[in-house]
Please model this.
Amino acid sequence: MLANHQFQLNYVTDLLGRRQLDAQDIIRQIVDFQVAIPSWALGTGGTRFGRYPSGGEPRSLEEKIEDVGLLHRLNGSSNSISLHIPWDIPQDIPALEQQLREQKLVIDSVNSNTFQDQKEQPYSYKFGSLLHTEEATRQQAIQHNIDCIGYGKQLGAKVLTVWLADGSNFPGQQHFRQAYQRTADSLASIYEAMPSDWTMLIEYKPYEPHFYSMVIPDWGTSYALSQATGKNAQVLVDLGHHLPNTNIEQIVARLLHFGRLGGFHFNGSSYGDDDLTTGSSKPFQLFLIFNELVDGKLDQAVNNPAVAYMIDASHNTKDPLEDLLQSVNSILTSYAKALIVDRATLRDAQLNNDVVKAEEILRDAFLTDVRPLVMEAYRQSGGALDPIAAYRAERIREQLIQRRGKLSVSTGL
Ligand code: PSV
Ligand code: MN
Ligand code: MN
Model:
């Protein structure tokens, strides 16, 4: 396998060299790219219909960290984990810290949950949380977010992600302007309690669970809220949270231009929030999105903070760990393709309105087989050349089933 890999890597290195591109430099950038794994993606889920556990799913925060550590050993690209409270309330902090150190992982973000009522919770979120008409319910939701910050602080996280299921199902149900204002005020109260070196990510979604209106349906609303909230509030783009055919790459470019792109949730989507494997059905779109991210990073005029990358996918049919390995591979492949775009010639073509040339430059990068670069990045970071093959050869799922049982079910969406 190694000999085969070396042969292909030599070929791509030579090919890129002829275009004045240094393959080693691109490999280094792939090695540096890390994408967080959410605790809720380690089990099957993503459906409100039947759920078919894959077996050996993690039953505790410790087992979730163990699974992410496993992924990180296989591909060297998943060095952080996102928590969801109350599913992942940390108990034994020193033991968790030690486990994280051993697995070379960090906690990147904490996600609040005001989309479900918890046992013994005094007020219901049936009619919303941060936008609720009653002050006491809003306060409860604000306090939950502040508690999340507290849990995150214990484990060194510095990001709070707020996704709200708040909205309405019928015309007239909610006063749009007041609902927006109550949300903005609640976010401001949470922001006030946030340490100054933390970031608040505000995620939008056009529909679901509500089907008439969502209080934060689009990037424009997230952007307005982040501006009103403060400089450490940023917009989070989740690939699945757009109506079909939305030009997501343009949204990414706009947010970079405004310096408000804070976070990214990767997944694959054909209809809505399908949460399938990243890049599975629309690889060209994923490449175009990375093209904007890379372009923004290279442009001195762009003043955007570091973007927090995470996979946000959870579905019913694949082994979740194999799915995450596939997702990371798609992400890195698209990133590598964006890194080899001939930007100077593209800029010329754009300035000269040479439409065909501009498009051909992008197509050329997209159609170049960069897989040997990604495999080499895995190898250089101590991972496996083919992480999925290694996972299967080591019979890891079988071992997890033996240890955790066939019917263990992880918390998820
Ligand atoms: C619900 O749509 C959702 O998938 C959002 O994308 C959040 O990021 C995630 O759940 C976790 O709350
Ligand atoms: Mn998301
Ligand atoms: Mn979602």
User: Anything to note?
Assistant: The two ends are 38 Å apart (CA to CA). The beta strands are 37-38, 80-84, 106-111, 159-163, 167-168, 199-203, 213-214, 233-238, 261-266, 308-311. The chain has a mean pLDDT of 97. The chain has 15 helices and ten strands.
